[in-house]
Design brief:
single chain; about 220 residues; alpha+beta; 5-stranded mixed sheet; 11 helices; about 60% helix
């Protein structure tokens, strides 16, 4: 091999290496997510967050924002968040969809029973009044290691429900299945405690206060 041939081959090899390196860099640039994409929180599909049978506490036509709360009716933090949620519903109920989903914590003695009681009241069109009573009277029954079935029957009487039908629904395996289905969905999308809120599919990471949620809702309404 002559000296000129060696030089020519060397030059060709260098050119090929440079071109290959440029192609690799270009491809990496195309495939690599932008910094904005890396920082963006994951969005949970609406089909999982809001099932066809999910309870919409408000559902205005043309709503641009959906707030989903996974809650435990015995949870003190959920009880503390309740007044703020009710205030937000009063202010934004004509523009924002608010969805209630059950997430009873197994260590709470009456959480699952309370969810079943709300669900059973819903069979008689009183889901929301029972939901409110649970939180308003939570200090009477929450954080106790005894069954409060009789307490919840008292709530049913207070709401004027047909007690026999209420108890039948309360003990119906379908009612329990409905509650547990919510909890399963929550666990599958990363819910670990309560209350956990999702606003337009994004898990809310701030303080579950009126002001914290209001700020996110306002931002979503203006986008």
């Amino acid at each position: 091999m002559t000296k000129n041939t060696k030089v020519s081959l060397t030059v060709v090899a260098v050119v090929v290496a440079v071109v290959a390196a440029l192609l690799i860099v270009t491809n990496l640039g195309e495939d690599a997510p932008s910094e904005e994409a890396i920082d963006a929180p994951p969005v949970v599909p609406a089909s999982i967050l809001v099932r066809p049978d999910s309870h919409r506490l408000s559902d205005p036509a043309g709503s641009k924002v959906t707030v989903v709360e996974f809650l435990d009716l015995e949870c003190e933090a959920c009880g503390a968040a309740f007044p703020g949620v009710e205030r937000l519903r009063a202010e934004y109920g004509d523009r924002v969809t608010f969805v209630l989903r059950y997430f009873p914590i197994p260590s709470h003695q009456n959480a699952e029973l309370a969810a079943r009681a709300v669900e059973a009241a819903g069979k008689q069109g009183k889901l929301e009044p029972m939901y409110r009573l649970m939180f308003e009277k939570q200090p009477e029954w929450g954080d106790q290691q005894v069954s409060h079935r009789e307490t919840f029957l008292g709530f049913a009487r207070e709401l004027g429900l047909d007690l026999r039908a209420f108890e039948t629904a309360l003990d119906d395996p379908v009612t329990l299945g409905r509650v547990l289905a919510d909890r399963t969905d929550g666990a599958n999308i990363g819910v670990e405690g309560t209350p956990t809120f999702f606003v337009n599919g994004v898990k809310f990471s701030g303080s579950p206060s009126y002001q914290g949620l209001k700020a996110v809702i306002d931002r979503e309404l203006t986008e």
